[in-house]
Every structure is written in structure tokens, then in C-alpha cells.
Hints:
Blueprint: H1 2-45, H2 49-53, H3 67-74, H4 76-107, H5 115-124, H6 132-141, H7 149-152, H8 159-172, H9 175-183, H10 188-199, H11 201-217, H12 220-225, H13 235-243, E1 249-252, E2 255-258, H14 262-296
Antiparallel strand pairs: 1-2
Amino acid sequence: MKESTRAGGASGRKQFDIWGVLIGLFLIMTSLACLLPFVHVVAKSFSADAYVIANKIILWPKGFTVEAYGKIFADASIMRSLYVSIVVTVLFTIIGMIVTICAAYPLSRKQLKGRSVITFIFLFTMYFHGGIIPDYMLISSLGMLDTMWSLVLPLAFSAFNLLIMKTALTSTIPDSLEESARIDGADHFRILWSIVLPLSKPIIATLSLFYAVGRWNAYQDALFYIKQNVDMRPLQLKLYYLIIQATESFQLEATQVQISNPEVLKASVVVFATLPILCIFPFIQKYFVQGAMIGAVKG
């Protein structure tokens, strides 16, 4: 009897180990599928034109050179686009988080009458959208075309992020804590500032990352709304215009730059546009996993 029990336990451990190996291999393959293309782009950005033309670049640069990055930093339009992207992303994230927090906190409190109906209204907007043409007409009628606010205000609120924030506040902020604060004379603004926000750092950091990355990588709205004022083009839109160039000649605003292969400049701009987000992520990584888990639990 004992021998059969031991055999069954050994078989169970063996089966568990096999599944663990398979899951580990799957995660490794998925990680490589995400990482290797970026490594290839980085290697191409530091390689000489001749090796790129011959398609000899895989994961390591050949003919190491930083000439493409020198052209990026020498071009005033790209540096101006970087400045516009930073300002727009910061404003977008701040405004988005303020609106999200101010909407999620009352919806997470049980004493708010009709909160289920209001939540459904927000949820409804995730399934139905007016379309690009009504959005453009609205932005045009508000006089925000070719301005920074056309990139900040229209998308500064996300119903998806609101629902995550609401769920997190419901599951992490107990009603007893709010009741004790109200007994001490604190109003809702005081409770929000002194209790809710300090206890919600993980989910705030997570949603801030969602807002910042989404705004940083977006270019379609800038393509529609920024036409005449080229100084307001964000970095991703500048990258878009570089990528769609099919010739070997790039007009970089002030000078005519001749390069043997445009892929080198494209790769260097991709790396240049990705680095700011990669530099920010390690500082909020400790909050990211915790915040994502809190927002995923239904309260």
C-alpha cells in the first residue's frame, strides 16, 4: 500500500515537472519572439549601410557606426518632435489620471445612488464609438486642429482604466476605514487625498504606465489633427513619415541627407523613440505587477 502511494506521488511529481518544463519553454519562446525583433532593429541601427543592404545583419551589428544617431541629433525637427511627445505624454497622463481617479472613487463607494447605472454608461462607450469623421468634425468645431490639445483632451479618459481603478478601490479600501475617517470629521476630498491615494500607489502607477505608453506610441490622431503646424508633430508621427519614405533620399527639414539605405535611419529612429519608455519602466516595475493583480480582482 505504501509502495503504491509512493509510486503515485512520484508519478504526480513527474507529470508536474513535465508541465513545468513545457510552460517554461513556452514562456521562453514567447519572450524571444518579443525581444529578438527589437534586438535586430538595434543591431541594424548601429551597422554600416553596406551590411544592411546585403541583409547580413541578424542580432549583432556589423561595421559598427553611430552615424545614423548623429543625423537624428543633428536634425532640429526630430528633437522638436521629441520635446512635443514628452510634453503631450506628461499632460495626457496627468489629466487622464486626475479624471480617472475622480470618477472611480465615487463609483467605488456604496453610498452613491445609481452607481451601477453610471458604471454601465461608461461601459457602454467601450462597445460603441462614433467614428473618425465625427471625431474630426468635433475637434475642428472646437478649434483644436494643429494644437497640442487635440492630442491631449480627446483620449485623456479611458473607460477601461476607469473600471480597473474602480475595482481596485473597491477591493483595497474597506468601508470601515472610510467610516472611521468620516467620524473624525474628514470629508470625501480629505479621505481621497489622505487615505485613498496613499493606499492606491500600485494601481495608480500601473494606470499611469498604461496612459503614458498608449499616448507615446499613438500617431493616428496626430496624423489626422496635425496638418499645417509641422512644429506640433510628435515623435511617432515623425517616425511614421520617415518609415513611409520609399526612396533613399530623406528631406530632414533643413538639409538634404543622402544615405545608401533608408532602413538604417528608420531603425535608429525606432530605437530612439523606444528608449524613453524603456528607461521609465524599471522605476515603476515594482508597482506594476501588484497593481495589475489588484485591478484584476473583482471586489
